[in-house]
Specification:
49% of the residues lie in helices and 13% in strands. The protein is of the alpha+beta class. The protein folds into three domains: 154 residues, Glutamine synthetase, N-terminal domain (Ubiquitin-like (UB roll), Roll); 389 residues, Glutamine synthetase/guanido kinase, catalytic domain (Creatine Kinase, Chain A, domain 2, 2-Layer Sandwich), CATH 3.30.590; 128 residues, Four Helix Bundle (Hemerythrin (Met), subunit A) (Up-down Bundle). Bound molecules: adenosine-5'-diphosphate (ADP) and magnesium ion.
Length: 700
């Protein structure tokens, strides 16, 4: 384990970062590389060759023998194909080689990755292209080069390509707006993201005994343990020694990779924890989140533990999310969501703030779609998770300020004048009170927004593509209006006021977990898509196509392909879960119940005949209960089996997803209820799986 004093040295020691580049590259090459990093300038082939060579020498010094183009296909995880640096020489020896071409572009067979129909129309080959803005790093003796993954026709087959496009779209429009405020020096605006990653840790030996955890990442059955999270004794509680050792190793690994792992604590549910890094530019934050998830899973195994990233591994306790903290920063470091000190800064802040409000209101359906997955369907709307409905929390103070602007009225009785944008300083609102409402899906937390609907296992790219593009679109509309205005001050004031008026329905400071909110949200006309198939059916609504096509983030073909992939993925997950469940009930659970029933009835028969007792309350009542519950479970099992193998099952993805959501998922829920009624009646030692209590409250 790294000593604290060495930390400053080991941090980023496995990363070919800017400081390393500076020391390893010729001056001119470094200058070109910087232009590429900060201003998106393309590198010419000669420069790329020099960079590749320096990168290789640096990597070999640190023990690397291989390199890989590391990319993020639509599977939700990362992919890599390793090549060694070796190249034969004429005298039968080898040299270590790595060319500029090998650094910048790789060929990859796209046919084994989800393409949503793009494969049928285009070549099966795909290519990976170096993303110089995300630094290369070394892991397990391999030089990892972050890349984008496209089809040969240039269609995005991954998460990074559209993410980079969405960042570019936002930067372009945000700079236009900044110019209107007299900022002539900043040339780019980058979005920033900090992901709080939640996860569960369970012992490996118990995990191995549960087919549902192994195949589905979540428990399909499991009666409640006597204790849940009702005592609130786990959140921020003392971290147990074995978890501490696991966390320490994760930090160590991540720090070497330049990931700013910062906060680690216990979460609300038993056996649940969280890791939050310090925020970074969005594409780097997304790469780092993939690394975090990968490192956590690998390190857990080394400690005899398993890290569960599923959104809802356990019924009845909290699920896991990935809170996506988001903001926008100029290249000179100005956070555009930081309320300033002067009327000018305040005005600029308010414009960017209402841009986000409008974007979230207008594209609330797309935000919901971006977090839709089979796993997250179990989490959203359940047990301390944000509901399916997208709304925004601003806090009472900021809401009151916006109301005053909207109605041209006094913010505070003590204020003599009305709030005039660009003239007045915003009344101070304390930062710490802005984060009180944990039930809001999209909360303003002082100088950033926190989007809480994203599931723990998802790639954060999915929601950030939507947030960036939606905000870019709104900023474009704002810039169009303001650039054409004769009087900027008046136009700005009116624009902010009108935007609040039109989009305030999305603002909600109340309790998002409350039943009454569902009715109120419906009255406000907010969308409420309860399942993934329902959400996905709105993917290609004209409004959404326009958003992505106009901002050059997705072509119509790419968008249709994404919808296909999401639906296909949903159907596959439900199918695996149903098959696993059927197997567990047929092969383990019902046989265990049956043999215990035999034990009971033998006991009843033998005891009665030998001892002539006329009543055996425990045995008789238990037998009756087991009979009742197992008959119900068997009946539902048969119905589920028929539904899964029905010849009438729809063939097309959209219809099949709807079938899975409407027929299979409810049947699994019903079966679960019946099986969970059996478990507490059965003796511990004959129940085939470790119980919730063992998984969640293990002592180690
Ligand atoms: P909480 O648990 O109270 O929501 P944390 O401190 O755990 O807060 O997480 C806050 C996250 O927000 C951290 O990852 C932090 O780096 C990130 N963050 C802070 N400022 C910004 C910003 N300007 N842009 C994006 N993320 C930010
Ligand atoms: Mg948070």
């Amino acid at each position: 384990m790294t000593e604290a004093k060495n930390l400053t040295e080991t941090f980023g020691s496995m990363v070919f970062d800017e400081a390393t580049m500076k020391s390893k590259l010729p001056k001119e090459t470094f200058r070109m590389m910087q232009a590429s990093l900060h201003y998106g300038k393309r590198l010419d082939p000669e420069t790329a060759s020099v960079v590749a060579n320096a990168m290789k020498d640096w990597a070999i010094e640190r023990g690397a023998t291989h390199y890989t183009h590391w990319f993020q296909p639509m599977t939700g995880i990362t992919a890599e194909k390793h090549d060694s640096f070796i190249s034969p020489t004429s005298d039968g020896k080898i040299i270590m080689e790595f060319s500029g071409k090998e650094l910048t572009k790789g060929e990859s067979d796209a046919s084994s990755f989800p393409s949503g129909g793009l494969r049928a129309t285009f070549e099966a080959r795909g290519y990976t292209a170096w993303d110089p803005t995300s630094f290369a790093f070394i892991r397990d003796n391999t030089l990892y080069i972050p890349t984008a993954f496209c089809s040969f026709g240039g269609e995005a087959l991954d998460q990074k390509t559209p993410l980079l496009r969405s960042m570019e779209a936002l930067s372009k429009q945000a700079v236009r707006v900044l110019r209107l405020f007299g900022n002539t020096t900043d040339t780019t605006v980058k979005t920033t993201v900090g992901c709080e990653q939640e996860y569960f840790i369970v012992p490996l030996d118990l995990y191995e005994k549960r087919p549902d955890l192994r195949f589905c990442g979540r428990t399909l059955v499991g009666a409640k343990a006597p204790k849940g999270q009702e005592m609130d004794d786990h959140y921020f509680g003392t971290i147990r020694p074995h978890i501490k050792a696991f966390m320490a190793e994760i930090d160590d690994e991540l720090w070497k990779l330049g990931v700013l792992a910062k906060t680690e604590h216990n979460e609300a549910a038993p056996a649940q924890h969280e890791l939050a890094p310090i925020f970074a530019t969005t594409n780097i934050a997304c790469d780092h989140n993939q690394l975090i998830m990968d490192v956590m899973q690998k390190v857990a195994r080394k400690h005899g533990l398993v890290c569960l990233l599923h959104e809802k591994p356990f019924y009845g306790v909290n699920g896991s999310g990935k809170h996506n903290n988001w903001s926008m920063t100029t290249n000179s470091g100005i956070n555009l969501l930081e309320p300033g000190e002067t009327p000018h800064d305040n005005a600029q802040f308010l414009l960017f703030l209402v841009a986000v409000i409008k974007a979230v209101d207008k594209y609330q359906d797309m935000l919901r779609i971006s977090v839709a997955s089979a796993g997250n369907d179990h989490r959203l709307g359940a047990h301390e998770a944000p509901p399916f409905i997208v709304s925004m929390f601003l806090g009472d103070e900021l809401t009151a300020i916006l109301e005053a602007i909207e109605t041209d009225s006094l913010y505070d009785a003590r204020d003599r004048e009305m709030m005039r944008i660009g003239v007045h300083v915003l009344p101070k609102f304390p930062k710490d009170t802005t984060d009180r409402n944990r039930t809001s899906p999209f909360a303003f937390t002082g100088n950033k927004f926190e989007f809480r609907m994203l599931g723990s296992s998802a790639s954060p790219a999915s929601c950030n593509i939507v947030i960036n593009t939606a905000v870019a679109q709104v900023l474009k509309e704002f810039a169009d209006v303001l650039e054409a205005a004769d009087d900027f001050g008046t136009a700005l004031h009116d624009l902010i006021r009108d935007t609040i008026k039109e989009h305030k329905r999305i603002l909600f400071n109340g309790n998002g977990y409350d039943e009454s909110w569902i009715h109120e949200a419906a009255e406000r006309g907010l969308s409420n898509y309860r399942t993934t198939p329902e959400a996905l059916s709105h993917y290609l609504d004209e409004k959404n196509i326009r958003l992505f096509v106009d901002n050059k983030v997705f072509s119509e073909t790419e968008l249709a392909a994404r919808k296909e992939i999401n639906e296909e993925n949903y159907c596959k997950v439900i199918n695996i879960e149903a098959q696993t469940f059927i197997n567990m009930v047929r092969r383990d659970i019902l046989p265990a119940v049956s043999s215990y029933k035999k034990t009971l009835s033998d006991t009843i028969r033998d005891t009665k005949s030998v001892a002539c007792w006329d009543a055996l309350p425990y045995e008789e009542e238990t037998l009756a209960l087991l009979n009742k519950y197992s008959a119900a479970a068997f009946h539902t099992l048969r119905t589920l089996e028929n539904a899964v193998s029905s010849p009438d099952k729809p063939k097309k993805n959209g219809a099949l997803a709807a079938y899975c959501g409407e027929i299979i998922v409810p049947l699994m829920a019903e079966l679960r209820c019946e099986v969970d009624a059996l478990e507490p009646v059965m003796p511990r030692e004959v129940w085939p799986y470790p119980a919730y209590g063992d998984l969640l409250f293990y002592t180690k």
